[in-house]
Q: What sequence folds into this?
């Protein structure tokens, strides 16, 4: 997956197919536990949850790249030790299955009920200081838990342009309690930064929306309800890691 040179970690991508899933299945792969057994019986395991994530101190990490790839991140010295021998890669992972709920369309500045997401509203939040930009804020409140995978899509009908974000992306990182214990409502919000009228958004900034685009824009709110969980195991034998790493450029 990356050249076999340099000094950083080596990424190896193994093709992966999970049987029993339909083409319409909406699945999220959870954290996985993985072990590599080297050609001479060496054992390398992914670190326990909560362990140090400084890669200089660990030999192996693993994650799913979309649905069809199992990505291994190996310390370079470990990779060179086992790259040409036959190894075994085994592990387990949790799967979470979703069902797409009803999509609710809401104009800018409106407030209405979105089934599955609660009572939602959208407002333009003006900046407290002149050196800051205004933002479009979408807020949903519900006495029930708001599904983690609730998607927002801001759509401009004149041009067909759209901007998508998960509901809740406007929430800052907090190391302590995340909910208001004095309120019976669950809340999630998302902010889209607005570019001043007449100016183009910063190239590559997918969170910034031209203020001019809001005149007739609409917001789609789509919750995804969790329907089931499962645990899958995998066991790849006689794998040669060097077969799955892109060779150095010549």
A:
């Amino acid at each position: 997956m990356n050249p076999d040179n340099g000094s950083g970690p080596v990424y190896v991508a193994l093709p992966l197919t999970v049987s029993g899933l339909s083409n319409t299945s909406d699945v999220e792969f959870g954290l996985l536990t993985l072990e590599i057994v080297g050609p001479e019986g060496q054992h390398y395991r992914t670190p326990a949850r909560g362990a140090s994530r400084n890669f200089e101190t660990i030999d192996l990490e693993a994650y799913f790249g979309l649905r069809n790839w199992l990505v291994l991140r190996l310390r370079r010295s470990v990779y060179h030790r086992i790259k040409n021998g036959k190894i075994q890669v085994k592990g387990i992972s949790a799967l979470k299955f979703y069902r797409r709920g009803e999509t609710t369309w809401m104009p800018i500045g409106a407030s209405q009920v979105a089934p599955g997401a609660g009572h939602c509203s959208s407002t333009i939040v003006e900046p407290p200081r002149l050196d800051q930009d205004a933002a479009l804020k979408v807020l949903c409140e519900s006495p029930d838990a708001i599904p983690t995978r609730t998607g927002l899509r801001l759509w401009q009908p004149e041009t067909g342009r759209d901007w998508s974000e998960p509901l809740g992306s406007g929430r800052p990182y907090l190391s302590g309690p995340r909910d208001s214990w004095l309120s019976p409502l669950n809340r999630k919000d998302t902010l889209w930064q607005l570019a001043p009228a007449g100016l183009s958004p910063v190239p590559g900034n997918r969170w910034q929306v031209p203020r001019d685009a809001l005149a007739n824009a609409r917001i789609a709110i789509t919750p995804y309800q969790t329907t089931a969980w499962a645990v899958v195991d995998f066991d790849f034998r006689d794998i040669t890691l060097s077969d799955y790493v892109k060779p150095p450029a010549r």
